[in-house]
Amino acid sequence: MSNLLEIIGPYPPPLGGISVHIARMEFFLRNEKINYKIYNHGFVSSENVLPTNKSVFWYIKYLFSHQGKLIHFHQFFSFHFLYYFIFSKLSEKKIFISIHGEGIIYLPEWQRKIYIGLLKNTDFSLLICVSKNLSSLLAQNGVENIWLPASVPPGKIQPVILPKIQGKDYFLFNIAKLNSKIAESIYGIELALQFLSRSSNKYQMLLLIGSEVESDKDYLNSLLEKHKVKDFVTVIYEGNLVNYLGNCKFLLRANKVDAYGVSIQEAIDLGIPALASDVCIRPKGSILFKKDNLDDLIEKVENIDKIRVERETVKSDFHFQLIELYKKFLN
After folding, report:
1. Which of 4, 274, 300, 309 measures 20 to 30 Å from 86, CA to CA?
2. SS3 62
């Protein structure tokens, strides 16, 4: 167990950015013969996946029961910053921390200083920022880190073919879970529905939702009725995004807050145009529009074929970089 890698974070289901990243990394971990365990912030278990059952007490127990030579924490709760600080003072193990969002940037200054102070005093081996903007902010405040997006190739794709309604093209909009708390404030779903309302003579929406149990269907129905687009939206719960992209003219990521956009990278890798709000550094080949700006979005869609030709698309190898970092710190 001396060269054991332990990964702590969510694992599918549901399908979200972090859980998909961790699950897809398994193939490359096995391929490189890296000995690993995944502690799933959830209830699913398998050969190398152990559930924490979302228990706070698990985290307390883990302070004293961890075995890995390298521990990789994926941050998704604010209390994790304090936990990582405490963990690093009690353990001599090597620690990776991945921060997948830009939340720190938008906090009140006093709260941001607390989190940055905790990171400054945490004894980690490597801090990974998925967001280029956050990476720059932390570096400016004396927190050493690297920028490394969480994009991992999907492996085998099993296409799901959907029938077109009246010959209209699909565009894809995906969201981890749909509720009134985050659907608009984070994912910008209102802009997507406004676009659909204006363009329903040409397009229909394929709405992929990562978690059915954590979504509010009444709220979804109220949004569709508000924008009068119920007949132009196909909803799929817990579907693998890459299996559906082939149906779509383009992918739309309208986030008001974001870090990178793994779904954008996946669309580009599969040759599907990806339109994204300009809130952060996006994958090469993205077609950017101004945040929350319907007119700019419509203009970009109308010129999508021309813009696509002008853009450079580059497949990512971020997962290989992460594997090399694992091997470096395990050996």
Report:
1. 4
2. helix
pLDDT value at residue 156: 83
Region at 285 (left for phi over 0; alpha for psi -120 to 50; beta for the rest): left
Distance, in Å, from the CA atom of 206 to the CA atom of 292, rounded to the nearest integer, reads: 20
What do you get for the CA distance between the two ends of the chain, in Å?
Answer: 13
Number of structural domains, the chain? Answer: 2
Residue 158, domain member (yes or no): no
Residues 142 and 173 in one domain: no
pLDDT digits (tens, 9 = 90+) for 55-67: 999 999 999 999 9
Helix ranges (DSSP H) in 121-234: 132-140, 189-199, 217-226
Question: What are the tens digits of pLDDT across the range 130-169?
Answer: 999 999 999 999 999 999 999 898 878 899 999 888 889 9
Whole-angstrom Cα Rg for the chain:
20
Using alpha carbons, select from 302, 297, 157, 163 the residue that is nearest to residue 234: 163
* Rounded Cα distance, 267 and 15, in Å: 16
Distances 27 to 37, 50, 89, 272 between C-alpha atoms, Å? 13, 17, 32, 24
- Indicate whether 140 and 180 sit together in one domain: no
Classify residue 292 by burial, with Cβ atoms within 10 Å: 0-12, 13-18, 19+: middle
